[in-house]
Structure formats: structure tokens, C-alpha cells
Records
---
Amino acid sequence: MKICVTGGAGFIGGNFVYYMLDQHPDYDIVCLDALTYAGNLETLEGAMKNPKFKFVKGDIADRDFIYELFEREKFDIIVNFAAESHVDRSIEEPEVFLKTNIMGTQVLMDACRKFGITRFHQVSTDEVYGDLPLDRPDLFFTEETPIHTSSPYSSSKAGADLLVLAYYRTYGLPVTISRCSNNYGPYHFPEKLIPLMISRALANESLPVYGKGENVRDWLHVYDHCSAIDLVIHKGRVGEVYNIGGHNERTNIEVVKTILHALDKPESLISYVTDRKGHDLRYAIDPTKIETELGWKPVYNFDTGIQQTIKWYLDNKSWWENIINGDYQNYYKKMYEGR
Ligand code: NAD
Ligand code: TDX
């Protein structure tokens, strides 16, 4: 079995590479990644030593390159993690989100049709459902919840999802889609809430909380996301969507305070800043379908998972310090100065 993991030099794709090498030592894993600002070969250092792993640099939206690669490699399964993934960046510069997230997905699926595969899996997000109100804790996203996006990022992910389902209906491409809630864990790029707050708190820098910090996210450890995708690509029904989440809702301010307490830092570091434009209020996944149909169960709860994650950032300072000492400085200034 040969699996192409696109976006494998990023956060979730990188964790998935390690998960698959560990769980399926007989599989060949090829990581295809353009190494954008979010791609990092240091994340894959451990995998590079494994003879069953190979890294290929390239853009999923580059049709000629992708066709040559597919012709040469003869993949069985494609798992498409490659994407522009940060909501704030999509608000500043939406175009590359459409190019990579929509056009890139189309190029990959065209290659699948042309050269043949047994499964194309699209890694999507709960953000395609929009948001839920804060005062209705009884409401959750199911696979039947209508698509109702808020940001250029989520719109581009929804556009890709619709295209994936269209390729199933029109061409019979064997596809599956998973829609996951917010991930956390090792190798998370420090522009995202949890690693941003850990790295800034350790440097005694202010922690920018959008609005009042009341927005709710449903946190899932990246390991549990990987185990769910492994199940979907092997046992999921083609043409189906599976929601993934572990019922770990927290307000942003709760998450930030948990990090501060774990690091023994004062709450005075918190700085309430101008809210994100179009900021989604609450995400909450109903995972009944994947639990009952495929028998998936998460192993982490947030309270222990976040402590382990904080420890990982303490034990792996050089990984994130190399990132925040580079171009990242300019990004942070542009996004937060005067906010
Ligand atoms: P990430 O930004 O950490 O990594 C994205 C990776 O894709 C990077 O390695 C980057 O170099 C690569 N990439 C970007 N454009 C590319 C292109 N044109 N061609 C090839 N490679 C390209 O993202 P992540 O957080 O690991 O998210 C992975 C996937 O999971 C995305 O599709 C995202 O929408 C989805 N998702 C993420 C979360 C989350 O909480 N992070 C939750 C649900 C779904
Ligand atoms: O500095 C910050 N301050 C802050 O209050 C940042 C970066 C974020 N926030 C808030 C915004 C959100 O309510 O924290 C929450 C989480 O923000 P992000 O880490 O940017 O994640 P989110 O926007 O929820 O999207 C994430 O989950 C769904 C991923 O980035 C997406 O790729 C995924 O689809």
C-alpha cells in the first residue's frame, strides 16, 4: 500500500506521517509538500530516517508536476492535508487560499481520475458549518448541518468539499471527507492560539486575546484526529462525510488561563485586543456517526492532553524558536501592532 500525504510537513500532516509509519510499518508513505511558511522539514526529521518514508517538494496546484508524480509513484491512497490553514491570514490575503485549497484539491482529484487510486480523502474542517450560538449548548454540528461559512478560509475549504462530493457523484471517484474540530498537540505552528500563547508566555510577552475571550472551540488532540482518519480511509464508506470531535469545548480565555497556570505565569500577561473580523462564536462537533459506524474513540481528554502538549513545547524549544526567530517576526508585527 502506498499513501501520498499532502501537507505532511505541516502540523496535522506531520503527526499523521508518524502515526502511519508507526501503525502500518509495511506501508510506503510519500509526503508531498510545497514547504510554504507553514511547512517545516524539521518536523519530519524522525521520519526521514525510515526507509518506508519519502519526501517530495511540490505544489498540489501545479498540474504538470502532479501528473508526473502520480504517473511515477502509482499511489493507492491520497490523504489531502495540504492547505492554507490560518483564518487570520485568509482575512488579510484570501487569494492563495482559493488557489491551494480549491484549485489544488481539483488538480489532485484530476490526477486521481487519470492515474487511478483506491481512495481520495479530503481533510476538512468543522468551520464549513459556520458557528453555533453561545447560549445554546444543546446544539452541535452533525454531517447534515448546512454549509454556512464565515471566513475566506472556511469558504475555500467548503468549496473544496463541494468539489470532492461532485467528483464522487459525477465521475464516481472513491472519495471520503472528514470534518474535524480544532486540533492541538506537537508541531502546531505558533501562529495558532495554543502554541502562540505558550511561546509568548514563556517569553513574558503579552497574550493577545480577541474580543472578550468568550468564543468557544472544541479541542481534539492531533493523535485522535490521526486515528480517526486512519479508520475513515480503511473502513469509511465512499461518498460519505465523517465529523471528528471529542466533546472538549473550552472558551478561549479558559484555554489561555490554563496555559498561564501550567507555566506559573501571571494573568496580567493577558491583553484583550480588537476582535477577529467575522469571528465564529462556537464550534461543537457531534461525532456520533464515526463512533457508531467505525467504532472510533478518542484517547485524550483536554485536561491531560494540554498538560502533555505544554510539556512538549518546553522539551522542544528549538523547534518553535527556529520558527519564531525567522520571518514570523514580521508576520506578528503586521497582524498585532496597534490592534
Ligand atoms: P498547517 O498550516 O500546519 O500545514 C499545512 C501544510 O500544507 C504545510 O506543510 C504547507 O507547506 C503545506 N502546503 C500549503 N500549500 C501547499 C500547496 N499548494 N502544495 C503543497 N503543500 C502545501 O495546517 P494544519 O493545521 O496541519 O492543517 C492541515 C489540514 O487540516 C488543513 O487542510 C486544514 O484545513 C485541516 N484542519 C485543520 C485543523 C486545525 O485545528 N489545525 C482542524 C480541522 C481541519
Ligand atoms: O492571537 C490569537 N488570539 C485569539 O484570541 C489567536 C491566533 C486566536 N485567538 C482566538 C480565535 C479563535 O476563537 O482563538 C481561537 C482559536 O484560533 P486559531 O488558533 O486561529 O484557530 P481557529 O480560527 O479556531 O481555526 C483552527 O481550527 C479549525 C485552525 O486554524 C483551522 O485550520 C481549522 O480548520
---
Amino acid sequence: MANSQYEVVKQFERENYLLQDTHIVIRVDGRGFHRFTKNYDFSKPNDERALKLMNKAAHCVMESIPDTVLAYGDSDEYSFLLRKDTDLFERREAKLVSTFVSSFTSYYIFYWNDYFVDKKLNLDDGLPTFDGRAVLYPNIKRIRQYFSWRQVDCHINNLYNTTFWTLVIKGGLTPQDAENKLMGTFAKDKNEILFSEFGINYNNEPEIFKKGTVIVRESNEVENVSDALNRTSLEEQNTGAVDAPLSLRQKERRAKKRRKMKIQEHHADIIGDTFWHERSYLFE
Ligand code: ATP
Ligand code: ATP
Ligand code: MG
Ligand code: MG
Ligand code: MG
Ligand code: MG
Ligand code: MG
């Protein structure tokens, strides 16, 4: 290997190796989408084309990075959960985050025309860019809290935005008046405004708006749910038993199984137990 006198600068590089035995979540979020969505005339409060484009990009990222077991997204953001024992890029944070962000952005731009057939991306209106971060969670309880947090956020924003834009578009209020009217209101007040003033039952709004989208690898093997739950809770108790490292053959078998799993989209509740109890294999 040719070691030049300049290679000394390599020593200035610092790597953050994400702690092993923790769950990695990578979240990407559109930069300045408040403005971007205005420039491209997104329908308000929810442009369905844009949500489907986000889902498409996330789906492609999951396909191209098999260690991603689940993704959840709404608005201009997507969170990706990696399998706990992933060794992708030796768990180097910068490699992981930058790869997710640039893959997601590439797919978003590549498929733009499929969803926005009459509006091309252009420099005047700005190109879509995303930022990203990685967060580590120590156990399944925290992972579920994380995804619950994102879905609650989706719900709160959507109820607010739906009421706000109904007041503006159907009620003829100025944005300022609509904002004032909603100040200090609770969820039940917004539901009431939608129903009594506009005959809209919020519960009947499309699930993709209310719940966001969860994309998950589906196991085709029906597994014994209680076995799986016992196993995961045992793992979490950390009773002192040392995890036996998987043999190469075991690893290959599992990787093959993951590749064969179908990637599927749902607009489901991920706050309650059902979704997770049906998919405990995600944490294997
Ligand atoms: P930042 O760069 O800090 O993320 P931002 O302008 O992107 O700034 P966010 O908090 O991420 O701020 O908000 C996303 C914005 O994009 C919101 O204004 C939201 O209403 C809008 N938006 C995202 N997706 C859609 C959609 N499908 N239809 C309509 N508007 C959308
Ligand atoms: P990693 O994902 O680790 O970066 P890599 O395959 O991208 O893996 P690099 O060290 O980044 O590895 O090397 C880039 C590769 O791309 C080299 O093989 C280089 O020769 C090739 N390459 C890059 N640009 C050009 C170019 N303009 N013409 C021909 N080959 C190129
Ligand atoms: Mg942001
Ligand atoms: Mg944003
Ligand atoms: Mg956002
Ligand atoms: Mg390279
Ligand atoms: Mg290179």
C-alpha cells in the first residue's frame, strides 16, 4: 500500500460506531417542506400523491437495504428500524445516516413524475432534499414508544391541519382567523367544529391521513405468538444468560428468510399491542 506523506490527514477522521445490542432507528425528514409544498401546489391539508411518493421511496429503501425491518412515515418524514444485530457498515453512524438519506432522496426524485404527472421538478421551485439522524433504543418498550410518538404526532397534526384548512377553504376564513379560532382548542373541539359547522366526521377521513403508513416485512410462517413473546421478554429481562452468538449457517438462514419476506404497507394502529404481537419476529 502506498502511504503518502499526506495520509496523515486521515487521522483527523472520527467514527461513531453505534452501540451494539441496541435498536437503530434512522429518521429522514424533508428540508423546508413547508415552502416546498407551497411551490409545488400540494393540495392541503394532505396531498395524497405526495404521501404515496413518500411511501414508494421508503418501500424502495427497504428493498435495497434488507436489514431494515420496518418503516413508519407521515407528512415529509420516514423512520426506519434496523434489525437489532445489524452489522451494516460496521454500524458506523455517518455511513448509515448518509446512505439512508441519499437513497431515500434518489428514489423520491426518480419516481416524482409517476405521482406528479403534470408538474415537473424544477430549479425555480426547488429540489427536494432530506435531513437525517440516527437514534438508539435499548429495548422493545422504547421502540414502541418511539413509533407511538410518531403516530400520535401524525394524528395531532392531521386533526389540526384538517380543521385549519376546512375553516380556510370551506369556511372562507383567513389563515390568521383560522389560527386564532383554533388557539387553545382540544381534540374534541376540533372534531366538533368539523362536524357541526361542516358535516365532516373526522373518523371517516382516509386512514392514510389519520394513521400514516407502516411498511413491514411480513413473515409467511405463522408462528406461535406466545412462544415469541416469551422469548422476547426473556431476552429483555437480561437474566444473566449470555446470548450465544449465531453460527454462520444460522445467520445465512435468517438472512435468506428475511429476503423472502414480502414487504407490505398498512395504515394501521401501531400504538396498541395487536400490530406488534402479530409480528414479534421483527425483533428476532
Ligand atoms: P424542516 O426543514 O425543519 O423539517 P419543514 O418546513 O419541512 O422544515 P416540517 O415540520 O417537517 O417542516 O413540516 C412539513 C411541512 O410539509 C408541513 O407544513 C406539512 O404540512 C407539509 N407537508 C408534508 N407532506 C405534505 C402533504 N402530503 N401534503 C401537504 N402538505 C404536506
Ligand atoms: P464504498 O461504498 O465503500 O465507498 P466503493 O466501491 O464506492 O465502496 P470507493 O473507494 O469509493 O469504493 O471507490 C470508488 C470506485 O468507483 C473505484 O473503483 C473507482 O475506480 C470507481 N470510479 C469512481 N469514479 C469513477 C469514474 N469517473 N470513472 C471510472 N471509475 C470511477
Ligand atoms: Mg427537519
Ligand atoms: Mg421537514
Ligand atoms: Mg416533518
Ligand atoms: Mg464509494
Ligand atoms: Mg470513493
